[in-house]
Amino acid sequence: MKTLALFEAGKASDDENGLCCDSTALSRRDAAIDAWMKEHAGELGAIAHQWFQVMRKCGDEVRELLHDGCPVVCLGDAPFGYVNVFASHVNVGFFHGAALPDPARLLQGTGKFMRHVKLGPGMATNAAALSRLINTAYSDIKARVENG
Known about the structure:
alpha+beta; 4 helices
């Protein structure tokens, strides 16, 4: 858990995606994310906003920042989820998604750690299962941070 030790020290790097969280850059609510949401208005932006709101509400300790052009939620310095808008879909992603139980089989991706759920207009969405994934990702990162 080398990455978590770095998170606890206030500086982290995720080898797979290059994410670095510096506790000085994190805030409970980040104005840059609100601006990002305004820039991504429209149908896809609304989907991203809806699911980022769910992530924001996971707990009092949730912090957010804009990283690599997309909104990221963290527990302290440890990232657990993000949203991003593409030309025809939205990704709701999880930094430790490979470790999450996914009985509804929503998660996509083959990386060592990260997984995402692809959403878009006309795509069926299992909202209850996605909400469970978000809450599970939050619980998972909380356990990783607390238990090292």
